[in-house]
User: Fold this.
Amino acid sequence: MLKNKRSSIITLLIAVAALIILSFMATLIKGNILKKEQIAIQIDTVSYGQDGKADGQPLDEAPIKITGEYVYFQDRIVKRFYFDDHEMDEYSQVVYEILADIPKNIEKTFMLVPSRIVYEDSLDIDDKSNFIKTFEEINGHLGRVSQVLNVYEVLKEHTSEYIYFRTDETWTATGAYYAAKEYLAVNGVDIYPLDSYKENRFIGYVGTMWAVEGGEYIFDSPDYVSYYTREGMNNNQTITANENGDYIEYDSPALAVSRMGTDIFLGGIFSHSIIAGDEENSKSLMIIGDKNAKLFAIWMIPYYEKICVLDPAYFDGEHEDLEYLVSSNDITELIVMTSMNTLDNQVRMDRIVNLMGFSEQNKTEEE
Assistant:
């Protein structure tokens, strides 16, 4: 009898202890979640200077090191760009085949996204002229099958604004806005003014530049990520991803601060996304692009019925799967968007070739 009573008391004590631990853990988790949310929406407590530097500091003008691949400043790291005739011919040919294969009733656009290096006016290097040569080369190839949109001058008008990250290779949502504005204007659509959106910020963001050789110091100069919301704007998408060799589909917010950093925009790695637009106008846009495309796509939501975004580096499909996506989503416009920073990425090039179904044998025959 006494033994049973002791056993009951011990069981009760264990249960009470478990409840205390669970309560403590729940409080801790809740505190962390609140802390993340507070960081994400913090907007007026810090005064930011040019390109998101805290306390209103200006950008450093003198680099601390220049290598063949990067220019290192104390407050930023910038990837360099070189022009290569052979690489440009190869890339242009592959993209030409993609665009030429798309049905003629679909409006097609190619957009070369300038990288930060072309706006670094304090540097005496050839990267800007290399970009101009590249654009002219690609325009010569692709102008026959698509519109080639030059956003270089558009972005140049806004270099005093925070249009590029200092610790990452992509434009910010603000930079993407001006490119989106140009694309829509060319297609006869007036974009909503930027000040009609609510700006939210995720602070303390450090992009991929910390991982380059000698780049760890950039943690001392973090960026912030602005993301913009508009009352009544749709915020729904359907993601298709590859999980252990199987396709899975799931619904997810198009903008979600819980994902943090630039993953706020659509998410991390996935095959493709179908974003629900605000309009019921039978207009569907497909964007084939790199990381820049995710920040760009959000600005398209108010003007389309759906927006399909896929990155060739992660798209889990072949040429026929691309054709199926185009037809099943009734695509009416297509953008092929490429950053200067990814033109020399051979893995990405191989994926684009595979996506096109454009083999080495095909290229040899074309030549």
Remarks:
- The longest helix spans residues 2-41.
- Confidence is low (pLDDT under 50) at residues 1-45, 358-367.
- The longest strand covers residues 198-205.
